[in-house]
């Protein structure tokens, strides 16, 4: 039987993990500076949570969820993180403990979409949610943080698009205006958009079909329909972003595929590059009604999620990290025991080390030391051991010397540390 990974679900191999760690660590370090704390909700939630919060007539709920019946319970692999976070917030009565919560999460999400570059069925998100602050100051802070994060990751060609959806009333009025604009033009729309015209006309604005492009460009702007409070919220947001010198683009036709959004909406778009139509690196917005709809009090909220695979595609390559480990190459039986002891001692100094236990030729062990990026290869031979020494190959300097068996671990640890000061590259 030829068993392979499920279509659209990828193995992330150790050779790729360095970039993942760099991305995840940069994200964690930055958001913790803004006082976000990590939360880890389950990967599986009741199906009803997503149906109600994301919305019944959305692509995700209509066709992309991995849902199953487990002994009579309707469950779903989470297609996104926000609904689960809000559920946890309500379930644990977090609002009674603190007025504002800043939470972040990292982990896999599942959507049964047609796989292509930058679009997978299992993909990773890093997200932040703030519950308990109505904005707009923190809306600006959040967007500014995202721009900062892109800068830290070396992603230059990216723009932050912002829009406002207003409150529920505005959305209803906009929906009417949009339907009035689109109905006479229906025949020229793509089949998908024709179908959406009745059930979810706002989503037509998301269409990438060239047949829809012109009609969308002429569509009315939701910003013209905002009521006074929503307009003031949006204008303040722009003012705060200006004050923070955050570059942004007002995009009145920005809509996103969830029903839960209210007011502020934003998306990070990569310009050019290899992502093509999957150019949304991340996005988010306000969802001021969700906590209440889940049975909690009236708690406003805002958040975003980044698609980590897409960010990695947009991130520049970094040169290989510097070598800092040691490979022990024993030649013979008693040499192997000594090699194990030297490796143990190196690790006690905080230096990564491993022993080649294959009983392979010296040439093959040296080749492996080089391939694994070791800084030193320690050759432990029975004859040398009898004289109290081991041979050390410096794989950066391409030099070789004899060191005392007793001192070798300490000396190499010192050398590696001095070429890699703590906190250095
Ligand atoms: P979303 O726009 O659906 O928002 O997803 C956020 C990001 O996840 C997207 O911009 C994209 O980079 C990535 N992404 C989405 N689907 C896929 C896929 N199939 N393959 C690869 N990457 C993908 C949310 O999920 C909201 N929960 C964001 C949010 C948080 N809103 C408020 N709080």
Walk me through this protein's architecture.
The protein is an alpha+beta fold and 425 residues long. The protein has 15 helices and 16 strands. The chain has helices at 14-33, 47-54, 59-64, 82-91, 137-152, 168-182, 191-199, 210-217, 228-243, 290-293, 308-314, 333-348, 362-371, 382-386, 408-419, and strands at 37-38, 44-46, 66-70, 73-77, 101-110, 122-131, 158-164, 249-250, 262-270, 280-286, 301-307, 325-331, 353-355, 374-381, 389-394, 399-404. The strands form three sheets. An eight-stranded mixed beta sheet has the order 1-5-6-11-10-9-7-8, sandwiched between helices. Helix 5 packs parallel to helix 9 (228-243) and helix 12 (333-348) crosses helix 15. It is elongated, with a radius of gyration of 28 Å. The two termini are 46 Å apart. The model has no long low-confidence stretch (mean pLDDT 94). Bound molecules: histidyl-adenosine monophosphate. Histidyl-adenosine monophosphate is lined by residues 80-82, 111, 113, 118-120, 123, 125, 127, 129, 256, 280-285, 287, 303-305, 307, 309-310.
């Amino acid at each position: 039987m030829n068993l392979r990974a499920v279509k659209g679900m990828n193995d992330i191999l150790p050779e790729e993990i360095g970039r993942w760690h760099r991305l995840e660590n940069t994200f964690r370090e930055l958001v913790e500076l803004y006082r976000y704390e990590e939360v880890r909700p389950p990967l599986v939630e009741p199906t009803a949570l997503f149906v109600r919060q994301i919305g019944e007539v959305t692509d995700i709920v209509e066709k992309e969820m991995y849902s199953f019946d487990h002994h009579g319970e309707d469950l779903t692999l989470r297609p996104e993180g926000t609904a689960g976070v809000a559920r946890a917030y309500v379930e644990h009565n977090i609002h009674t403990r603190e007025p504002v919560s800043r939470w972040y999460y990292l982990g896999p999400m599942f959507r049964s979409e047609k796989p292509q570059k930058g679009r997978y069925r299992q993909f990773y998100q890093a997200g932040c949610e703030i519950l308990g602050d109505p904005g707009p100051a923190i809306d600006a802070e959040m967007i500014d943080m995202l721009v900062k994060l892109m800068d830290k990751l070396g992603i230059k060609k990216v723009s932050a698009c912002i829009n406002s959806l207003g409150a529920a009333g505005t959305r209803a009025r906009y929906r009417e205006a949009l339907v009035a604009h689109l109905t006479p033009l229906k025949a020229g729309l793509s089949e998908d958009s024709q179908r959406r015209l009745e059930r979810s006309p706002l989503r037509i604005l998301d269409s990438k079909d060239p047949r829809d492009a012109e009609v969308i460009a002429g569509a009315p702007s939701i910003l013209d329909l905002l009521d006074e409070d929503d307009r003031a919220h949006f204008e303040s947001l722009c003012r705060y972003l200006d004050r923070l010198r955050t570059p942004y683009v007002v995009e009145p036709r920005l809509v996103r595929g969830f029903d839960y959004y209210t007011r502020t909406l934003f998306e990070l778009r990569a310009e050019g590059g290899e992502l093509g139509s999957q150019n949304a690196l991340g996005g988010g917005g306000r969802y001021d009604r969700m906590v209440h709809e889940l049975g909690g009090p009236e708690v406003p909220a805002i958040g975003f999620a980044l698609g980590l695979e897409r960010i990695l595609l947009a991130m520049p390559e970094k040169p290989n990290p510097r070598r800092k480990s040691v490979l022990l190459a024993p030649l013979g039986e008693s040499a192997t025991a000594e090699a194990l002891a030297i490796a143990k001692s190196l690790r006690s100094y905080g230096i990564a080390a491993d022993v080649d236990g294959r009983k392979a030729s010296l040439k093959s062990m040296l080749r492996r030391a080089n391939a694994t990026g070791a800084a030193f290869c320690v050759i432990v031979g029975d004859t040398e051991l009898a004289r109290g020494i081991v041979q050390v190959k410096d794989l950066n300097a391409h030099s070789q010397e004899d060191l005392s068996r007793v001192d070798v671990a300490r000396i190499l640890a010192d050398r590696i540390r001095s070429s890699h000061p703590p906190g250095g590259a």
